[in-house]
Each structure stands twice: as C-alpha cells, then as structure tokens.
Design goal:
5-stranded antiparallel sheet; alpha+beta; 12 strands
Length: 436
C-alpha cells in the first residue's frame, strides 16, 4: 500500500473511531444517568418503607415527644446518630396547631405539617424525606429521615461512573481505530488495485489504438502502394489481435473476481492434460527449434478441478516457457505424485526469473524486465490469471530455477484419491514468483 493509501486508512479509521466513541459516550451518559436514577428511586423507596414502618409504630398510641428535644415517650426511641442527633425525626402536630419535635433544631415548615404522602423537603440545607399520618388521639404525626444515605450512594455511583467512563471511552476509541484500520486496509488495497488496473489497462489499450489510428490516418492522407497497404493491414491486424487478447483476459479476470466460483469441477488426469497441451504447442516449439517433452512419474496424477481452468493454466505456463526459451533451447513438462499431492512443473532453458522480479510475477500488468522490449510479449495478465486459477483450486506455487538455469514454474494440488481437503494457502512457504 502506498503512503497516501496508508494515510487515508489512518485518517479514516480515526474519524470512524471518533464517531464510534461519541456514540458510546452518549449511550454511556444515558445509561449512567439511568443507573443513578434507578438507584435513587430504589433507595428512596426503601427509605419510604422504613418511614411507613416507623410511622405505624409511633402512631399506635400516645407518645408525646418532649418540646426540648429528647426522645418521645412510649416504646419508640430512635438511635442517636445523624445530623439531627437521630436518623428519625418525629413531629407531633396537636389539634390546636402546636408542634412538638423530637429534635428542637429540626423545624417542620408549615406547608408540610399536614403531609401524609412521602415527600422530600429541605431543612436548614439538608434534604429530609417525610411522611405523615393521623394518630388515634387526634394528633397528626409526621416522621422524617435525612437522605444522607441516598446522597452518599449517589456520590459513590457517580464517582465510579466518572472513573470508568474515560477508561471505557479510551478503550472504545483505540479498539475502533484498530478495527477500522484492519477493516479499511483491504478495502483501500482493493481500491488501489482497481485504480492501478484501470490505469494499466488504459495504457495497454492506448498503444495498439495509437498504432491503428496512425496507419488509418496515413492511409487517408494520400494514395499508397499495394505493399504499403498490405503492411499497414498486417500491422493493424496484429494490434487488433493484441487488443482482443487483452480484452479477453480482462473480462476473464473480471468474471473470476465477481464469481469466485469453481464451475464444472471434474476429475482431471494431469498427465493426460499435459500430453495434450504439449502436442498443441508442438508447432510452436518446431518453429523455434525447441526441444519440447513431457515426463510422467508412476502413480496417480488425478486431481479435482475445472478442466478448462487447468488447460488455461498449463497453456499459460507453456506459452511463457516457449516465449523465453532461446532458439534451439528446451522446454520440459513433468507430472507426478508428491506425497498426498500431485505436482506439475514446467522448466525452460531461458534466462530464468531474477530474484528481484520474483516478488511480483503474479501482479496484473507486470512483465519481466527481459520482456520490456519484446513486441510479442503479452500485457502481463497471463500469470495473474494463472495465479487466480491456482488459488481457486487449492494449489500451491513453487518458483525456482530449472536444471538448465532457466525458470521453473511448479504447482501442486491435493490428489483426488486422497480427498480434496480444506482450503490451503496458495503458495508454499518461502516460494517466490515473477510474471512473464
């Protein structure tokens, strides 16, 4: 991936992570507020239950509290703790309006002296939960308790949420960045490959179109000789065929990228297929005085794959071998079992594949350096198609040097008699490659 692509992936992942963190932050705030509200409601409900229980005990009989503060008479005596020297405060409102309190410092506001339902009031800046009921002797009793415990619980929960929140958001941000980069990298790589493919295809098509356009323009300028027209038509025919091959390869790759399927997979004997393909290339070898032979080792060489795919793969390998082998050189095809697999190897006596080229041989539109000036060289899609076929049929590449010093292109597949097995890596460890 280029530096611009990496920068784009980085910035995109940061934006996605920020958006995800913002969404999580809003959700966290809502949940945190809900937890505080629910906790407050539950604690307040428990406090109301305690007030109701205490109110029922206080209002069972006459238990007048002392005006000067002290505990009310009878069987109810609140413990001595809390900001009002007791967690419970009892107010007795006599029929004549006199208010007697269990704590002289806790003055019940007049507006709440007739309260019956639970309510929260403020006394000297302290929140108190109160509840009232009528006593049998005609008095009205109001009992209250500070909400200090509720406030402490709220503070504890809020503090915990404030501590957990930043840690959670940082973890979400970092996780989103990592996931975003992991997800965006193959997308960006695919986008770059598409852009490169489009640029390379345009470049490859521009050359033959320029040649055709130049010959037609010259032909229209003035009358030419018959030999000139014949040469021009031959050149146009050559460039047209080149464009046709390029378009066919591009369409094949496009269909393959979309379908990723393996149509009409059958049992194929690689020995038979190799023999038939070598016979087909016999005329090519004869024209260049090449020694073309096929060797088969004893044992089953049957695999499961689409026959037309294997035919195209072997045709590509033989075409490259015959193209780069020198006049009078040799091309050898060997097929044989190799453990639980079957190996197909095409060796030639050409210049071989330079080490620096082996990392790119399957790149689309890449051609070997020694083919740069070869007018018969293809557009660099042959080995890209071959690699797609090998990958789709669970094959493994092994690229090296032949015994004669040329290139050695080898592919192995699981033997059909041993079962097809699962999907495997398309290249063996340490193998490298280059494109013709």
């Amino acid at each position: 991936m280029t530096s611009a692509g990496r920068q784009l992936v980085h910035s995109t992942s940061i934006r996605v992570a920020l958006a995800a963190t913002a969404v999580v932050a809003v959700a966290y705030l809502a949940i945190a507020a809900g937890v505080v509200a629910i906790t407050t409601q539950n604690l307040t409900s428990q406090l109301d239950d305690r007030l109701a229980d205490s109110l029922s005990r206080v209002s069972r009989g006459p238990q007048p509290p002392n005006q000067g503060g002290g505990a009310p008479g009878g069987g109810f005596r609140p413990p001595d703790r809390g900001p009002f020297n007791a967690p419970f405060i009892v107010w007795t409102i006599r029929p004549d309006g006199t208010v007697l309190a269990s704590n002289a410092s806790a003055i019940l506001p007049p507006a709440h002296r007739a309260v019956t339902a639970p309510a929260t009031i403020s006394i000297d800046g302290t929140f108190v939960r109160i509840q009232g009921a009528n006593a049998p002797d005609g008095d009205h009793i109001v009992i209250g308790q500070t909400m200090e415990s509720v406030g402490q619980a709220q503070s504890t929960i809020i503090l915990a949420e404030l501590l957990i929140g930043p840690i959670l958001l940082i973890a979400v941000f970092l996780g989103a960045v990592a996931i975003g980069r992991r997800a965006a990298t193959p997308i960006e790589q695919a986008r770059q490959r598409q852009m490169e493919f489009t640029a390379d295809a345009s470049h490859e098509l521009r050359t033959p179109l320029s040649v055709i356009e130049a010959h037609t323009s010259l032909a229209l300028v003035q009358e030419r000789s018959a030999d000139w027209y014949r040469t021009a038509f031959l050149r146009i025919d050559h460039e047209s065929r080149r464009m046709r091959r390029l378009l066919d390869d591009m369409l094949w790759l496009a269909r393959f990228d979309v379908t990723h399927g393996q149509p009409n997979a059958e049992l194929v004997d690689l020995t038979v297929l190799a023999t038939q393909t070598v016979d087909r290339f016999g005329i090519v070898a004869q024209a260049r005085h090449l020694s073309l032979a096929v060797e088969a080792s004893p044992g089953s060489a049957v695999i499961t794959a689409p026959p037309e795919w294997l035919d195209r793969l072997l045709g590509t390998l033989l075409d490259n071998a015959c193209k780069y082998a020198p006049d009078g050189g040799s091309v050898r095809v060997s097929v044989g079992p190799e453990g639980p697999r079957v190996r197909l190897t095409v060796d030639d006596s050409g210049p071989g594949i330079p080490e620096e080229e082996r990392g790119r041989i399957f790149d689309r539109f890449h051609r070997a350096a020694n083919a740069a000036g070869d007018s018969t060289a293809g557009a660099g899609l042959g080995l890209a198609i071959a690699d797609s076929i090998v990958r789709a049929t669970n094959g493994r590449w092994r690229i090296g040097s032949s015994p004669s010093g040329g290139a050695s292109m080898s592919v192995s597949w699981p033997r059909a008699l041993s079962g097809r097995g699962g999907t495997e890596d398309v290249r063996e460890p340490g193998s490298q490659a280059t494109s013709a």
